[in-house]
Amino acid sequence: MLPIDRSYRYRIMEEAGTTLKVGFPIILAQLLQMSMNFVDTVMAGRLSALDLAAVAIGSSVLLPFLVFGLGTLMAVNPIVAQNYGSRRFNQIGSNARQVLWMSQLIALPFFFIIRNLDFVMIGIGVESEVIPVASGYLKAISWGIFPGFAYGALRYFNEGLSVSRPGMYVALVGTLANIPLNYVLMFGKFGFPQLGAIGTGYASAIVYMIMFLCIFAFTYSFKPYKRFDIFGRFRLPEKTYMKEIASIGFPIGISATMEVSMFAIVSLLMGALGTIAVAGHQIAINFAAMTFMVPFGLSMAITARVGQSAGKGKMGEARFKGFVGVGLCTLFMSFTAVLMILFPEYIVAIYTNDADVADMAVQLLFMAAIFQISDGLQVGGFGALRGLKDTKKPMYVNIFAYLVVGLTLAWYLGIHLDIGPIGLWTGLIVGLTIAGILHNIRFFIKTN
Fold this sequence. Notes:
- It is a single chain.
- By secondary structure, the protein is an all-alpha fold.
- It folds into 2 domains: 18-237, no CATH class; 249-448, no CATH class.
- Helix content is 84%, strand content 0%.
- The protein has helices spanning 2-45, 49-73, 76-85, 89-114, 118-123, 130-142, 145-160, 165-187, 197-221, 239-270, 275-312, 315-342, 344-349, 355-387, 392-416, 421-446.
């Protein structure tokens, strides 16, 4: 039995290494893209409280549209992964062209919606002087929706073929371009007018265009892709391919939006508990969001690895790759959970010196430590299911886990029973745990 055990351990280590090799650039790309919003926020804060508030509100209103659109386009990852695994190379070029069409078809209505969201800001009680500036920010950044979604389409296409480094390098280019563009357009340098928060929107739109052109140039010129004949011919949207992208992608977009919505609504509910609760919650959730980027990046790699094996018809191999990936996600989140338990004061000290806020944040970091493992399980399990093109029933699981159970329990414990922030976070933990368990059970059954 010993040689078999050693052989199996070697297979696990080899697959873990491959998943990390594919996933690490995706992780960095996600962190770099998050840093763009951080830079926007910091630079807006140097102008005025009004500009800072406008960027914060505008970004929050924009987020669900970005999450749904980009989530939908993730469908191309398992599609091309399975086509590659089954050696259907002639379809891979069509997949790239059709997902680009889909990106623009999604962007078109979103462009007009994003430019007319004043009523939403009025409805949620945004201060009247902030609304015109936030609306200007949204109108400016709306021009970036078309290239931004096209960039996402080509990035996920590359990642489906386990070519993940270009997305990382392009995200680095975007991050580096974002700072000088913000400086020029926000502060009115080199003859440009001082546009404030609205300048941030235009800078982001230009950055999206730069990122799209970079990823397009790579995809067009990468020699191993020549056999796919991606751009060798022009094709209008084709019903068969578009239907496949929509049937797999829309559930992914809805699932991602449900998760974001759960956290966003809990943040709003936190507002009813006072400023200290909101500030402490923001610190804990921000740190948890940063750690989440690691398993999220790994989940994209898991999708590609599982998809390629499923395309070959090797479901046992797909199961092995999927659960090795889920194990990596859970292992990393276990490590961050230990950090949150052992060193919460040091983490909180990065964000604030306020004693009351720090005490609240420390309490919530302990709660965040609990859901780290659940978060790793759910994102890893969902990534594995995406590799099987299984997204519709996982979407129902997410709706049930996040909205029906998680959000309801958060309101009941935190607001109705007046337990407070701990009660709200208990709802988050339960929702993520249910999703994590059910996704992994389903993946086990689907690969049986």
